[in-house]
Design brief:
Chain lengths: 148, 140
């Protein structure tokens, strides 16, 4: 399987529509260009967590990130994520993820042995260099499978 | 300003229920969201990792939970959205997605609301705790 990493993350109407469907969102501003324009917006709005999806297609795509951080896919958990929005993101914008620092730490867990924690910080800039959102992502790697 | 902002007060609640998640829901999000970690769709891979079956992506639940502030206050109203994953979503789970207004205040003359969000299963298991700050936003 090839992973192609073009520069920038183009926000596309079709992908926004598909993503919105995958979270069951009927919000017209996600799906309907006419509704968006009638609301005075340049195009459809990207849902709040949309860029986390595009992160899988961007230059820091997930398979590479897992490899870079030496993570074992079987034991990786997503701890959490925080998004700060300067404003909504619209189809037609091209976002570039600017990776910031990665903060690694270790915690003794109760269920899965010792746990590695990776906090990654990313700014998303559009084609005009405007930072439209900031994201903090937390990945956890347990020493073994976490028993429920 | 939408009615939601005019009338908002602490303790207000908005919620909806998503009945019985299916493996197809997970696969649809794999396509929509790009997360093809096999632990979310490949039974044999999940079993090899010691799990009874595949589980849903955290970002699927997080994406659905983001509909709470969006449906309540509007798709352009989010100033922040954060989630912490607490436990896993399994096939057949029925989940209540809920928001409660924790605080209403003005900042720079603009009304803001802080929301506490949650996704909780039929077994009262918390999948996600979330938070969001909303305020009216209009294009310049």
């Amino acid at each position: 399987m090839a992973f192609i990493n073009p520069p920038g993350l183009p926000i596309e109407r079709g992908k926004v529509h598909e993503f919105a469907n995958s979270i069951g969102a009927e919000e017209p501003l996600y799906h309907d260009e006419e509704a968006a324009k009638a609301a005075g917006l340049p195009s459809v709005v990207a849902p709040p967590t949309y860029t986390s999806a595009q992160a899988f297609f961007g230059e820091k795509n997930a398979p590479n990130m897992f490899k870079d951080l030496d993570l074992d896919l079987r034991f990786v958990l997503h701890g959490g994520q925080e998004f700060i929005y300067e404003r909504p993101v619209f189809a037609g914008e091209v976002l570039t993820a600017v990776p910031g620092e990665v903060v690694a730490s270790t915690k003794e867990g109760k269920r899965g042995g010792s746990m590695k924690i990776f906090d990654t910080f990313t700014d998303y800039k559009n084609q005009d260099g405007e930072v439209v959102m900031r994201v903090k992502n937390t990945l956890l790697q347990t020493a073994g499978v976490v028993k429920e | 300003m939408s009615d939601a902002f005019e009338n908002v007060k602490e303790g207000d609640v908005y919620s909806f229920v998503k009945e019985k998640f299916s493996r197809t829901d997970f696969v649809r999000y794999a396509g929509g969201g790009g997360d093809f970690n096999p632990i979310h769709h490949d039974q044999k891979f999940a079993e090899a990792a010691g799990l009874p079956t595949v589980f849903g992506m955290g970002m699927l639940t997080a994406g659905i939970l983001s509909r709470v502030p969006v449906e309540w206050f509007g798709a352009t109203s989010l100033k922040s959205y954060g989630i912490r994953f607490q436990s896993r979503l399994w096939p057949e789970d029925t989940v209540t997605f809920k928001g409660v207004v924790a605080k209403v205040y003005e900042q720079d003359g603009v009304k803001h609301a802080d929301l506490e969000l949650s996704a909780i299963t039929q077994k009262d298991e918390v999948l996600i705790k979330g938070f969001s700050t909303v305020r009216p936003w209009s294009p310049a």
